[in-house]
Write a structure and sequence with these properties.
The protein is mainly α. The protein has a domain at 2-40. The protein has helices at 2-11, 16-22, 28-35, 40-46. Helix 1 (2-11) crosses helix 3 and helix 2 packs across helix 3.
Length: 62
Amino acid sequence: MRHTAASLMIRRGIPPKTMSERLGHADVAFTLRTYTHLYDDQREEAAFDLSELFPPAGSGAN
């Protein structure tokens, strides 16, 4: 239940420090490393086409 609660708190945008304190941890890194995981939609959101970072050649943008 703790794993699910931590993951859902992250998903709702609750700051990691707040989440860590609610779970009784002194170290935020421990909380994030131990109790969170990515949902499929988060993986998809993180994947993007590299062409989005670069303007098309000849567009005049720097």
